[in-house]
Design goal:
The chain is α/β, with parallel strands linked by helices and 322 residues long. The chain has eight helices and 14 strands. The chain has two domains: 119 residues, NAD(P)-binding Rossmann-like Domain (Rossmann fold); 148 residues, Dihydrodipicolinate Reductase, domain 2. An eight-stranded mixed beta sheet has the order 8-9-10-7-11-12-13-14, with helices on one face. The chain has a six-stranded parallel beta sheet with strand order 3-2-1-4-5-6, with helices on both faces. Strand 11 and strand 12 form a beta hairpin. Helix 4 runs antiparallel to helix 8.
Protein backbone atom coordinates (compact mmCIF):
# COMPACT_ATOMS: atom_id res chain seq x y z
CA UNK A 1 0.00 0.00 0.00
CA UNK A 2 1.35 3.42 -0.96
CA UNK A 3 2.22 6.07 1.60
CA UNK A 4 0.91 9.46 0.44
CA UNK A 5 3.27 12.26 1.45
CA UNK A 6 2.72 15.96 1.81
CA UNK A 7 5.51 18.56 1.91
CA UNK A 8 5.05 21.77 3.92
CA UNK A 9 7.66 24.38 3.06
CA UNK A 10 9.28 24.20 -0.36
CA UNK A 11 12.82 25.51 0.05
CA UNK A 12 16.17 23.95 -0.85
CA UNK A 13 15.99 21.03 1.56
CA UNK A 14 12.48 20.13 0.37
CA UNK A 15 13.81 19.69 -3.17
CA UNK A 16 16.49 17.27 -1.98
CA UNK A 17 14.05 15.38 0.22
CA UNK A 18 11.51 14.93 -2.57
CA UNK A 19 14.17 13.83 -5.03
CA UNK A 20 14.98 10.99 -2.63
CA UNK A 21 11.33 10.35 -1.78
CA UNK A 22 10.63 9.58 -5.42
CA UNK A 23 13.21 6.77 -5.31
CA UNK A 24 11.48 4.96 -2.42
CA UNK A 25 9.14 2.13 -3.36
CA UNK A 26 5.63 2.80 -2.08
CA UNK A 27 6.19 6.51 -1.46
CA UNK A 28 3.94 8.92 -3.37
CA UNK A 29 4.22 12.72 -3.48
CA UNK A 30 0.57 13.53 -2.86
CA UNK A 31 0.54 17.22 -1.88
CA UNK A 32 2.74 20.28 -1.47
CA UNK A 33 2.10 23.52 0.40
CA UNK A 34 3.95 26.83 0.18
CA UNK A 35 3.34 30.35 1.41
CA UNK A 36 2.16 31.35 -2.07
CA UNK A 37 0.34 29.53 -4.85
CA UNK A 38 2.89 30.18 -7.59
CA UNK A 39 5.64 28.47 -5.64
CA UNK A 40 3.41 25.52 -4.83
CA UNK A 41 2.41 25.15 -8.47
CA UNK A 42 6.01 25.32 -9.68
CA UNK A 43 7.24 22.75 -7.16
CA UNK A 44 4.23 20.49 -7.72
CA UNK A 45 4.66 20.60 -11.47
CA UNK A 46 8.36 19.77 -11.19
CA UNK A 47 7.80 16.67 -9.05
CA UNK A 48 4.30 15.59 -10.01
CA UNK A 49 2.34 16.43 -6.84
CA UNK A 50 -1.39 15.82 -7.20
CA UNK A 51 -2.47 18.60 -4.82
CA UNK A 52 -0.84 22.05 -4.63
CA UNK A 53 -1.71 24.57 -1.93
CA UNK A 54 -0.78 28.24 -1.65
CA UNK A 55 -0.91 28.32 2.15
CA UNK A 56 0.20 25.93 4.87
CA UNK A 57 -3.27 25.85 6.44
CA UNK A 58 -4.88 24.58 3.23
CA UNK A 59 -2.91 21.35 3.58
CA UNK A 60 -5.36 20.35 6.32
CA UNK A 61 -8.08 20.10 3.68
CA UNK A 62 -6.13 17.65 1.53
CA UNK A 63 -7.84 14.26 1.19
CA UNK A 64 -6.05 10.91 1.68
CA UNK A 65 -2.88 12.36 3.23
CA UNK A 66 -0.80 9.87 5.25
CA UNK A 67 2.13 11.97 6.51
CA UNK A 68 3.62 15.45 6.08
CA UNK A 69 7.29 16.43 6.00
CA UNK A 70 7.76 19.88 7.57
CA UNK A 71 10.64 21.69 5.87
CA UNK A 72 10.08 25.27 6.95
CA UNK A 73 12.55 27.47 8.84
CA UNK A 74 13.47 26.60 12.42
CA UNK A 75 11.23 29.22 13.98
CA UNK A 76 8.13 27.74 12.31
CA UNK A 77 8.66 24.06 13.12
CA UNK A 78 6.61 24.04 16.31
CA UNK A 79 3.73 26.06 14.90
CA UNK A 80 3.52 24.04 11.70
CA UNK A 81 3.80 20.70 13.48
CA UNK A 82 1.13 21.52 16.06
CA UNK A 83 -1.25 22.56 13.29
CA UNK A 84 -0.83 19.20 11.55
CA UNK A 85 -0.95 17.10 14.72
CA UNK A 86 -4.13 18.82 15.84
CA UNK A 87 -5.52 17.94 12.43
CA UNK A 88 -4.67 14.29 13.05
CA UNK A 89 -1.89 14.18 10.43
CA UNK A 90 1.40 12.31 11.14
CA UNK A 91 4.49 14.50 10.93
CA UNK A 92 8.16 14.19 10.04
CA UNK A 93 9.61 17.55 11.14
CA UNK A 94 13.02 18.75 10.05
CA UNK A 95 15.71 19.29 12.68
CA UNK A 96 16.04 21.09 14.99
CA UNK A 97 12.62 19.93 16.16
CA UNK A 98 11.92 23.28 17.79
CA UNK A 99 13.72 26.39 18.97
CA UNK A 100 13.87 25.22 22.57
CA UNK A 101 12.71 22.52 24.98
CA UNK A 102 9.43 24.32 25.66
CA UNK A 103 8.43 24.10 22.00
CA UNK A 104 9.52 20.49 21.64
CA UNK A 105 7.63 19.52 24.79
CA UNK A 106 4.45 20.99 23.31
CA UNK A 107 4.94 19.01 20.13
CA UNK A 108 5.63 15.76 21.97
CA UNK A 109 2.74 16.18 24.41
CA UNK A 110 0.32 16.89 21.56
CA UNK A 111 1.47 13.91 19.51
CA UNK A 112 1.26 11.55 22.46
CA UNK A 113 -2.09 12.80 23.70
CA UNK A 114 -3.62 12.48 20.23
CA UNK A 115 -1.70 9.27 19.44
CA UNK A 116 -0.49 10.74 16.13
CA UNK A 117 2.92 9.78 14.71
CA UNK A 118 5.67 12.36 15.14
CA UNK A 119 9.39 12.11 14.42
CA UNK A 120 12.28 14.55 14.20
CA UNK A 121 13.93 14.32 10.79
CA UNK A 122 17.40 13.78 12.19
CA UNK A 123 18.46 11.97 9.04
CA UNK A 124 21.91 11.02 10.35
CA UNK A 125 20.38 8.58 12.86
CA UNK A 126 19.13 6.42 9.99
CA UNK A 127 22.26 6.48 7.82
CA UNK A 128 23.86 3.02 7.40
CA UNK A 129 27.22 4.44 8.44
CA UNK A 130 25.87 5.78 11.74
CA UNK A 131 23.97 2.54 12.33
CA UNK A 132 27.21 0.60 11.80
CA UNK A 133 29.18 2.86 14.12
CA UNK A 134 26.56 2.40 16.83
CA UNK A 135 26.60 -1.37 16.30
CA UNK A 136 30.39 -1.47 16.65
CA UNK A 137 30.25 0.52 19.88
CA UNK A 138 27.43 -1.56 21.33
CA UNK A 139 29.16 -4.86 20.54
CA UNK A 140 32.41 -3.75 22.17
CA UNK A 141 34.51 -3.55 19.01
CA UNK A 142 36.56 -0.67 20.48
CA UNK A 143 35.99 -1.34 24.15
CA UNK A 144 34.55 1.31 26.40
CA UNK A 145 34.23 4.70 24.68
CA UNK A 146 36.49 7.27 26.32
CA UNK A 147 36.37 10.24 23.93
CA UNK A 148 34.23 11.53 21.06
CA UNK A 149 35.49 14.26 18.76
CA UNK A 150 33.31 15.76 16.04
CA UNK A 151 33.32 18.97 14.05
CA UNK A 152 31.11 20.57 11.44
CA UNK A 153 32.08 23.71 9.61
CA UNK A 154 31.75 25.47 6.29
CA UNK A 155 32.31 28.99 5.02
CA UNK A 156 28.75 30.28 4.69
CA UNK A 157 27.61 33.23 2.60
CA UNK A 158 27.52 36.05 5.19
CA UNK A 159 24.11 37.36 4.13
CA UNK A 160 22.73 39.31 7.13
CA UNK A 161 19.11 38.67 6.16
CA UNK A 162 19.61 35.06 5.07
CA UNK A 163 18.59 32.17 7.32
CA UNK A 164 22.04 31.36 8.73
CA UNK A 165 22.96 34.85 9.95
CA UNK A 166 19.51 36.17 10.85
CA UNK A 167 18.83 35.92 14.58
CA UNK A 168 15.09 36.37 14.10
CA UNK A 169 15.06 33.24 11.92
CA UNK A 170 16.93 31.15 14.48
CA UNK A 171 20.24 31.55 12.70
CA UNK A 172 23.69 30.62 13.95
CA UNK A 173 25.94 27.59 13.90
CA UNK A 174 24.60 25.71 16.93
CA UNK A 175 21.06 24.88 15.80
CA UNK A 176 21.95 24.50 12.15
CA UNK A 177 25.10 22.35 12.26
CA UNK A 178 26.28 22.12 15.87
CA UNK A 179 23.35 19.80 16.44
CA UNK A 180 25.18 17.06 14.49
CA UNK A 181 28.31 16.76 16.68
CA UNK A 182 26.07 17.01 19.75
CA UNK A 183 23.85 14.25 18.37
CA UNK A 184 26.86 11.99 17.79
CA UNK A 185 28.11 12.40 21.34
CA UNK A 186 24.62 11.74 22.71
CA UNK A 187 24.21 8.63 20.58
CA UNK A 188 27.51 7.16 21.69
CA UNK A 189 27.76 8.37 25.30
CA UNK A 190 24.28 9.40 26.42
CA UNK A 191 23.56 12.48 28.49
CA UNK A 192 26.58 14.25 30.00
CA UNK A 193 27.10 15.19 33.62
CA UNK A 194 28.54 18.59 32.75
CA UNK A 195 28.63 20.92 29.73
CA UNK A 196 31.09 23.69 29.04
CA UNK A 197 30.59 25.83 25.93
CA UNK A 198 31.72 29.07 24.34
CA UNK A 199 30.73 30.92 21.19
CA UNK A 200 31.85 33.81 19.03
CA UNK A 201 29.24 36.19 17.69
CA UNK A 202 29.04 38.19 14.47
CA UNK A 203 27.56 41.57 13.68
CA UNK A 204 24.03 40.17 13.41
CA UNK A 205 24.23 38.63 16.88
CA UNK A 206 24.19 34.96 15.89
CA UNK A 207 26.78 32.45 17.05
CA UNK A 208 29.16 32.10 14.13
CA UNK A 209 31.24 29.50 15.98
CA UNK A 210 30.52 27.30 18.96
CA UNK A 211 32.79 24.97 20.94
CA UNK A 212 31.52 22.36 23.41
CA UNK A 213 33.22 20.15 25.98
CA UNK A 214 31.06 17.48 27.61
CA UNK A 215 32.06 15.27 30.53
CA UNK A 216 30.32 12.11 31.69
CA UNK A 217 29.94 10.31 34.99
CA UNK A 218 32.04 7.39 33.73
CA UNK A 219 34.98 9.68 32.98
CA UNK A 220 34.41 9.93 29.22
CA UNK A 221 34.54 13.22 27.33
CA UNK A 222 33.27 14.74 24.10
CA UNK A 223 34.93 17.65 22.30
CA UNK A 224 32.69 19.19 19.68
CA UNK A 225 32.56 22.32 17.54
CA UNK A 226 30.68 24.09 14.77
CA UNK A 227 31.54 27.07 12.60
CA UNK A 228 30.00 29.06 9.77
CA UNK A 229 33.32 30.79 9.03
CA UNK A 230 35.56 28.02 7.67
CA UNK A 231 35.45 24.60 6.08
CA UNK A 232 36.50 21.94 8.57
CA UNK A 233 37.14 18.21 8.18
CA UNK A 234 33.64 17.29 9.45
CA UNK A 235 34.94 13.99 10.81
CA UNK A 236 33.45 11.96 13.64
CA UNK A 237 35.96 10.13 15.84
CA UNK A 238 34.97 7.65 18.53
CA UNK A 239 37.94 6.62 20.65
CA UNK A 240 37.62 3.48 22.75
CA UNK A 241 40.01 1.69 25.08
CA UNK A 242 40.87 -0.88 22.39
CA UNK A 243 40.29 0.95 19.11
CA UNK A 244 38.89 3.87 17.15
CA UNK A 245 35.94 4.36 14.82
CA UNK A 246 36.61 7.03 12.20
CA UNK A 247 33.45 8.24 10.45
CA UNK A 248 34.68 9.85 7.25
CA UNK A 249 33.74 13.43 6.39
CA UNK A 250 31.16 14.70 6.28
CA UNK A 251 30.28 12.42 9.14
CA UNK A 252 26.59 13.34 9.40
CA UNK A 253 25.96 12.05 5.86
CA UNK A 254 29.02 9.86 5.36
CA UNK A 255 29.08 6.72 3.25
CA UNK A 256 32.12 5.18 4.97
CA UNK A 257 33.74 4.52 8.32
CA UNK A 258 37.00 2.86 9.32
CA UNK A 259 37.57 0.62 12.34
CA UNK A 260 41.13 1.01 13.60
CA UNK A 261 42.61 -1.37 16.18
CA UNK A 262 46.26 -1.79 17.19
CA UNK A 263 46.26 -5.55 16.59
CA UNK A 264 44.62 -5.56 13.16
CA UNK A 265 44.62 -3.89 9.77
CA UNK A 266 42.19 -0.98 9.44
CA UNK A 267 38.79 -2.19 8.26
CA UNK A 268 36.66 0.19 6.17
CA UNK A 269 32.91 -0.24 5.75
CA UNK A 270 31.30 1.54 2.80
CA UNK A 271 27.64 2.20 2.07
CA UNK A 272 27.52 3.76 -1.38
CA UNK A 273 24.37 5.48 -2.58
CA UNK A 274 23.19 7.53 -5.54
CA UNK A 275 20.90 9.76 -3.48
CA UNK A 276 21.24 12.60 -0.98
CA UNK A 277 20.55 10.16 1.86
CA UNK A 278 17.03 11.07 2.98
CA UNK A 279 15.57 7.77 1.83
CA UNK A 280 16.70 5.98 5.00
CA UNK A 281 14.55 8.09 7.32
CA UNK A 282 11.72 7.93 4.78
CA UNK A 283 11.75 4.14 4.71
CA UNK A 284 12.00 3.96 8.48
CA UNK A 285 9.01 6.23 8.98
CA UNK A 286 6.93 4.30 6.45
CA UNK A 287 7.77 1.07 8.25
CA UNK A 288 6.73 2.62 11.57
CA UNK A 289 3.39 3.68 10.10
CA UNK A 290 2.81 0.23 8.62
CA UNK A 291 3.44 -1.30 12.07
CA UNK A 292 1.00 1.09 13.75
CA UNK A 293 3.66 2.92 15.77
CA UNK A 294 3.16 6.48 16.99
CA UNK A 295 6.89 7.18 17.30
CA UNK A 296 10.21 5.80 16.11
CA UNK A 297 12.01 2.98 17.84
CA UNK A 298 15.36 4.32 16.53
CA UNK A 299 14.94 8.03 17.28
CA UNK A 300 12.18 8.37 19.85
CA UNK A 301 10.45 11.51 21.06
CA UNK A 302 12.36 11.09 24.33
CA UNK A 303 15.58 11.20 22.30
CA UNK A 304 14.44 14.46 20.72
CA UNK A 305 13.61 15.87 24.15
CA UNK A 306 17.09 14.93 25.35
CA UNK A 307 18.77 16.53 22.34
CA UNK A 308 16.92 19.83 22.58
CA UNK A 309 17.71 19.93 26.31
CA UNK A 310 21.39 19.59 25.42
CA UNK A 311 21.11 22.33 22.81
CA UNK A 312 19.40 24.59 25.36
CA UNK A 313 22.14 23.87 27.90
CA UNK A 314 24.91 24.62 25.40
CA UNK A 315 23.16 27.82 24.38
CA UNK A 316 22.78 28.97 27.98
CA UNK A 317 26.42 28.20 28.77
CA UNK A 318 27.70 29.96 25.63
CA UNK A 319 25.37 32.96 25.85
CA UNK A 320 23.39 32.09 22.73
CA UNK A 321 19.83 33.40 22.57
CA UNK A 322 17.15 33.76 19.91
Amino acid sequence: MATRWGILGLGRIAHKFVQDLLTVEGAVLHAVAASDQARADEFGEQYGATHRFGSYEQLLTCPDLDVVYVATRHILHCQNTLMLLNGGIPVLCEKPFGMNAHEVSQMVETARSKRVYLMEALWSRFMPTILKAKELVDTGAIGRVRLVRADFGFAANPDPVGRLFNKELGGGSLLDIGIYPLFLSYLMLGKPAQIRAAATFGETGVDEQCGMTLTYDNGAMAMLDSTLLAKTDCVGLIFGETGTIRIHGRFHESTALTLERPDAQPETFTFDRQTHGYEYEIRHLMQCLSEGRTESNLWSLDNSLDLIALLDAVGAEAGISY
